[in-house]
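Section handout 9: paired folding examples.
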Amino acid sequence: MKQSEAAIKTTYLSMMSSAGLAVLKATVGILGNSYAMIADAMESLTDIFGSIIVLIGLKVAAKPADKGHPYGHGKAEALATFAVAAIMIVSATLICAQSIENINTPHDLPKSFTLYVLGAIILFKEASFQYVNKKSKDANSVSLKADAWHHRSDAITSLAAFIGISIALIMGKGYETADDWAALLASVVIFYNSYLILKPALGEIMDEHHYDDLILQIRKRAKEVDGLLDTEKCLVRKNGMQYYVDLHITVNAFITVKDGHEIAHRLKDHLMMLFPEIADVLIHVEPQE
């Protein structure tokens, strides 16, 4: 499936960029005496684990249906999103705890060169968010969207470190902990982002209804099939990157069962050709006099 292949490729790119940034941030944080940047490096490390989980989820979700999983393995993607959100929560908790400890530990002002590095990192991570987020929409993937928000969280922690270090350098002695307070604030933002990516994944697991636009399109295009009088109930649920549709239609009550069956088959083929994101359509035929 092209969608899953593109999503997996994007996840590999996320892993490589997170690994490189984690090393860069840790090195610059130690050399530049910035506790906020070291905390930021920890955030990048969790990005790697998050991307690994997303990768596993995408590969499992891409497996075809089998005897034990007649509807496929798509729910693995939402489960991977839960795991990524959990990692973000753990990461935010660790950053919060480390920031509080650093605030209570006397230390020197951070070095000014850390700002240049952070500025470049912020731009890179925001660009990474935009890229991965676009790919998540193209692939219709909640786990890839979670990975995108991991990049946004990383950009936020880097921005917080940038602001904190700037305040410390501008205000001078007595403001050494400004970057630690900034890291503490960033941890709160990460907690909130965890909630944002967890909510749609939970909705998918619970088959929550969010597909009015798709249903309208299905009803509209269904009427293009000869012999179909109207559509009644239409239900859609998402499983991984694909949708499963339950559609009730009405046909002339005086046609044969065979004719009604043929109309349903033509309708199913028509819809699946028009909407490649639909994995299956279950059609229930009702007679109308």
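Moving on to protein 2 of 2.
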Amino acid sequence: MIVQPVLVVAAALFSLGIYGILVRRNAVMVLLSIELILNAVNINFIMFDTMLADTMMQGQIFTIFIITIAAAEVGIGLAIVLMLFRNRQTANINEFDLMKW
């Protein structure tokens, strides 16, 4: 299997995720950008697991753990964003100064 195209796609997803975190100010879009980064990592794990022909399937196991953590992160993150939106009437990250002294 050719490794380079898969790694280029994973690098593109990772770059889009970083760009989304740095540029976007909407909290939901930042959560989606984090999901893109985690999916890029999952692609790398699966690709290297396939390339190395690992009998213990460690890349696939790590991918399942990352998918589980990503689902929990989305659930908790969206709950926090909804509560902040309910209190502040905005989803803009720059206006969330609740924890500042």
